[in-house]
Structure formats: structure tokens, C-alpha cells
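Example 465, ligand alpha-D-glucopyranose.
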Amino acid sequence: MARSCKSKVCNPALWPSGSTEGVSPEIIEECKELVMTNDHLQTYMQLFRENINRGLGKATNPNAIVKCFPTYVQDLPDGTEKGKFLALDLGGSNIRVLMVDLGDPDPVHTKVYTIPKDIMQGTGEQLFDFIADCLVTFIKSQGLAEAPLPLGFTFSFPLVQKGLKVGILERWTKDFTCSGVIGNNVVEMLQTALQKHGDIKVDVSAVLNDTTGTLVAAAFKNPLARIGLIVGTGTNGCYVEKQENAELFNEPDLGSGKVIINLEWGAFGDDGALDFVRVSYDEDVDANSVNPGKQKHEKMISGMYMGELVRLALEKFTKAGLMFEGLGSDALYTRHTLESSAVSDIERDRMGDYSKVKKICDSLGLTHATLQDHTNVRYVASCITRRAAHLVSAGLVVLMERVGEKQIAVGIDGTVYKFHPHFHNLMVEKIKELVGDTYDFELLLVEDGSGIGAALVAAVTAKKR
Ligand code: GLC
């Protein structure tokens, strides 16, 4: 397949991540609470193990925080799948529609549609009408209206699955709050919306989470893939579990004895379990979100919150007179003015160069920032990023233990992992430190994994039929 599934390489010419060289001692001191020690991570891992056990257990699941939803995907692709499939990928602020031709050297045709904010926070009917319109426009533009193709639907929110084609929305996460969807089967809602376009027939053959799509897409390329991870707008993981351990999974074994578990690990800590590492910025971000009290782990890690965490820290340090000579700006003191993409950019300057960090300070109206401020800003951003990368790494180690295979590949997608210049390296280093020689792991970037994986699940399902 032309889309890549590869190891990322980081650029050694950049400023090293987390270096304290030249950083003001007061800023280093203030940021200490953001540094995850290995003791913190060991405690986190133990809590995570316990949370997974509670999620998987039939008796404990109703009160579990990490829900561990069985996905009904029992088989990974083996790389021999062929045929044309459609995929619909809804998860962040975009909808992507894909036509994937698995036998073709140029297999993926994609169109991306931006979801307006009022649709993300409007009614469910409006959302699904919008999705159906995008899908139908794409199908017509590809000349696929006559012959219906099987469609894999990636719906990246917590779904209680009752089958491969039945996914009941448990709750919204990220920036979505559409009314009238929680408790309903999203496949049925999509089909109802599609019926308004009487001339178009679509055969939805599977609904899945983006983590599952990413794992499946990784497995198409690499037979060692057992874990899927997203670090993008949101964060979440999935892994291959033995059916006997997935007590809520009551389906006949189709032969593998395994089932993919969608952890919904963004919710980890919603009972206070992570309060030992959460700081005042985390509380602020949470209190001012559309879902206070929910997705506390996700709010420490993912792209939707990273920029705001950095901004809050800079605001605090400026007001304390530790940065910018105590002189802030309207933009610095306004919520959500710092995008997470800027957090990646801050660390993209080459050693000795300050142009990107300066541009970001300028864009916040901090044109009076000195070289010392620029060094401090980079350090603050790196502390937030490193914390996120270290938490995710410790989470992956727990999943490696659960899978229990010495050689293992992790399929990863999402803007933070993909675009942050140090995220991959930080993860590789931390995982190595935590596992020693126990696992021989590889972290693979799976571009468009959630969309391609949906097509592959549709393909594997078609093969089984
Ligand atoms: C949120 C969603 C989850 C998804 C993740 C990454 O945590 O609840 O389903 O996998 O974001 O997109």
C-alpha cells in the first residue's frame, strides 16, 4: 500500500527535548511538578493494570472507569486482502471519506470535510445528515453510485458494541456534544440519514474505533502488530486480548481465540486515580472543558488540550513575574489562543536557532520576549510534551504485558505523534527504560490508519463471509 506504516526518525539537529541548559532556575523549579519520575510511572502502571482488570470483568465492568469495550473484531488482516472498500472516518474536527482498493498500487482516494463547530455541538440528526451528505458527494464524485461497496465506519468515541455493525454511543468525548445520539446505534443513525438520498445504496459492514482501525492497518503491513494507539485530538489505545479474559464478549470464537479491546483509556483517572500526578493546569483545563470531570487522562496528553496547558503555565509564570518581565498580553491571557500544533512547532527550531519559538511568542503579542524567555518557553512546552509521552509510554508497557508476546509492533496515528518532532523518540527511550529486554518492540506510524483500517475490517469481514 502506498500509505506508509513506518518507524519515525527524529532530527538530531534540534534542541534536545527537556534540556535545562540556559533555562531560568525558577522556571525549572516551577516545572518540577510536570516531570514524571519512574516511581510515578510505576504507580500509574499498577493503577492502569487494575483499571483494565475491572473493565474486562463482567461483575466489575459496570463501575469500571476504563471501559475496555470488546470490539467484535476477532481477526487481523494477513496482508492478502483484496477488493474495493469505502471507509468513513469521524473522530476529530474532520470527516474523511476514503475509497480503498486493496490490490492497487495507488490504493487510497481520500476527501476531507471540515465539520463546522455548530454541527459538532448541534443535534444528532444534523450531524448524521452532514456525514451522509459528505459520503454521498464522495460516492458520486468517484462514480461509485451504481455498485454499492462495503463500508467500514470509524466512529472514534466510546461505543458499546453489540456486534460488528452495532455500536451504541455511551458518551461523547473531545469537542462533540450532539444531542440525541447517546444510547443510540450510530450505524442505524447513519443509515437513516442515508435513506434521505434514496438513489444511493451503502452497505455498512462494520463500525469501529480509530485505535482498532490503526491496529488493523498496522497488521496489514506487519504481522507483529498487536496494539493500536492514537495520540491526536484525543488519545486512546486498543490491544489484542484473549477472549476468555474479555468477560463481556459472548460471541462464538471464529478461530483466533482473540478479540480487540478498545480501552477508552482517555477516561482513566476520572475517579481521581491520577490526582497524584495532576496539577493545577489540568484542573483548569478540565473545569473549562465541555465535559468537566471526564477524560482526565486524555486531558493530560492529547492535542486538544496540550496548547492550553502550555498557555496556562506561561500565564502563571508571567503573572508571577518569572517571564516576559511580568508583562503579558491579551492573547496570552485568553483561553485557547495557543494551538497544540504550536507546541510541536516550538520544539522544531534547530539548535542555536529561536525563529519558530519567536514567531509563536510574536503571535501571542509577546514581541518583547527576550532570548531568555524563548529558552524558558521551549522548556515549558517540552515539559508538557514529555509528561504526555511518558504517560503514554507507561500505558503501552502495560498493554505489552497483557499481550505477552516478546516481539510486538504498535501501530500509531494522530497529529501529536505524527507531527511533534520528539514524541516518538521520547516514547522509544521511555519504553526501553521501563521494559529492558523483556519486549522487543517497534512503534510504527500508520498514516490514515483509522480510515484504511475501517476498509480492512470490511475486507476481513467480507473474506470470512
Ligand atoms: C477519544 C475517544 C476515543 C478515541 C480517542 C482518539 O478518547 O473517546 O474513542 O479513540 O479520542 O481519537
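Summary: Residues 371-403 form the longest helix (33 residues).
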